Amino acid sequence: MAYLLQVDFTMDGPFGVEMAEGLQNLARSINDEEGFIWKIWTEDATTKQAGGVYLFDSKESAEKYLTMHSARLTSFGITNIRGKIFEVNETLSTINHGPIQK
Length: 102
Prior knowledge:
102 residues, alpha+beta, Alpha-Beta Plaits, four-stranded antiparallel beta sheet, globular, YdhR, Dimeric_a/b-barrel
């Protein structure tokens, strides 16, 4: 069963190209997290919001990552961190071309 983790928070930047250049090492490190399948990075410079949508292979892996990532973001001075974990309906997601991989 796959689990989706949705995380968002308010931050002052960087966004766009600066974010992509500055966070490549962090992005690579996420690939090594237990149970991690994929991530889509999200950002809105206008409202100063960023975050991501992740897919994990278990609820436990998603919870563990959310706890660690929230602590990491807090250490960067980021507050107002919101995280939600959802069970993925793989049958319906596959019909709609959802990237469900294991």
